[in-house]
Write a structure and sequence with these properties.
Layout: E1 6-10, H1 22-33, E2 39-43, H2 44-47, E3 58-62, H3 75-86, E4 91-94, H4 105-111, E5 113-114, E6 126-132, E7 139-143, E8 150-151, E9 156-163, E10 166-174, E11 183-186, H5 198-212, E12 234-240, E13 243-248, E14 262-263, E15 267-270, E16 273-277, E17 283-287, E18 290-297, E19 301-306, E20 310-312, E21 315-318, E22 323-336, E23 339-353, H6 357-380
Parallel strand pairs: 1-2, 1-3, 3-4, 4-11
Antiparallel strand pairs: 5-8, 6-7, 6-9, 9-10, 10-11, 12-13, 13-23, 14-15, 15-16, 16-17, 17-18, 18-19, 19-23, 20-21, 21-22, 22-23
């Protein structure tokens, strides 16, 4: 499409938050953009001292702001963005970027909309139907569904979703006027799995084409992008929201009928807990997109590397990571510094997620109740 690059800017420090793995989603977003043009990457700490942003054909921002803390000073990052757009460079912002620079009204005015604290929200992450404007086809995606975003009068809707009978904006664009670049926003992209959706990728391409003044040709949308082929030395299944069971390869896993999950053979996601099966064996554990640990099966059992984890009876618990591994078969042995091994050829474990101590406790109780349910049903039918 163009030899000039897109400049992808990722939020760090004060322009990030605890709930988004922006580095990971920027990598996934870059792969989408690279299907259209070269991509160069910066983080927000590098923007102020970087060469003129106007060397780019397109600015793409994947940033945020922590609503639980005081708003960060905006000028060092926002001023160069505003200057670039004023010079004619278009800008695409995604997902939590609508939370950024919340104390500086210039960002909401530029973006054509914003997240309003206390008003904007999202239902529990999961599968939903996205309804883009023609010629794009509706598609399903595993993602957060931002709702009640504030939309400016000059913004043209490009995609919506419906929740409880109410239609909410998910993407929009604004034409550039008086020499300014156009601006577009997509609320999709909480996790890397969102960019596995061909529909999300098609929506990003359509917004990029619009911003660059190119004609967009819609393509049929398959359900998801094929996995790249990780080594399957672990069996894994979702038991319930943020409860993922693991066992040695070849073991039949008990199902619970829980279906609101994403699984393409490489990524297995339930809620904000993600297990990524790795090509060289084992898997990575991620909380809110952030890498928190590694697991790998060997002849002795399941080796776990989870920063800050400590063994407590049947549970390997890492409070800071918001992760616990509850052994259902096998015996834990601590090997120090957050490392442990679940011994036994027939080990079984459930990964539990909850980014607070009480949430971890509640999830573990839920697991116990799920496991007790079949026995209760047997007693009722005896």
């Amino acid at each position: 499409m163009t030899d000039r690059p897109a400049l992808l800017i990722t939020g760090v420090g004060a322009h990030a938050d605890p709930w988004h793995g922006l580095a990971a989603t920027s990598t996934a977003l870059a792969s989408v953009l690279e299907e259209r043009m070269p991509v160069h990457r910066l983080d927000t700490d590098e923007v102020a001292g970087a060469p003129a942003l106007t060397d780019a054909a397109l600015l793409v921002v994947n940033i945020s702001g922590d609503l639980a803390t005081d708003a960060a000073a905006a000028s060092a990052v926002l001023d160069p963005l505003l200057e670039a757009v004023a010079s004619g460079i278009p800008l695409l912002a995604v997902h939590s970027s609508s939370l950024a620079f919340r104390d500086d009204p210039r960002w909401g005015e530029l973006l054509g909309g914003r997240w309003v604290p206390g008003v904007t929200m999202h239902p529990q992450i999961g599968w939903s139907l996205v309804q883009p404007t023609a010629p794009l086809a509706p598609f399903r995606v595993y993602d957060e569904r931002y709702s009640y975003l504030e939309i400016g009068s000059g913004s043209d809707l490009r995609a919506v979703h419906t929740d409880d009978g109410i239609t909410h904006a998910l993407a929009w664009s604004r034409r550039g006027v008086a020499g300014h670049g156009g601006v577009a926003y997509s609320a999709l992209g909480h996790g890397v799995e969102a960019y596995r959706s061909a529909g999300t990728r098609e929506l990003v391409h359509a917004l990029v084409d619009e911003l660059l003044g190119a004609e967009h040709t819609a393509h049929p949308v398959p359900s998801s992008q094929p996995a790249t082929g990780a080594r399957a030395d672990l069996e894994a299944t979702v038991l319930d929201y943020e409860l993922i069971a693991l066992a040695p390869r070849g073991v039949t896993m008990a199902e619970t009928g829980f279906t609101d999950r994403f699984d393409d053979g490489e990524l297995l996601t339930s809620g904000y807990l993600l297990v990524e099966r790795l090509p060289n064996g084992g898997a990575a554990l991620r909380s809110h997109g952030r890498d928190v640990g590694r697991i790998i099966a060997d002849a002795l059992g399941l080796e776990v590397d989870l920063l800050g984890a400590e063994v407590d009876g049947r549970t390997l618990r890492a409070e800071a990571a918001g992760i616990a591994l509850v052994a259902e078969a096998g015996e834990w042995r601590s090997t120090g510094d957050g490392s442990a091994i679940l011994l036994g050829e027939d080990w079984r474990v459930v990964v539990v997620h909850g980014p607070a101590s009480t949430k971890l406790d509640n999830r573990i109780r839920l697991l116990d109740d799920l496991r007790a349910l079949p026995e209760t049903q047997k007693e009722q039918h005896a």
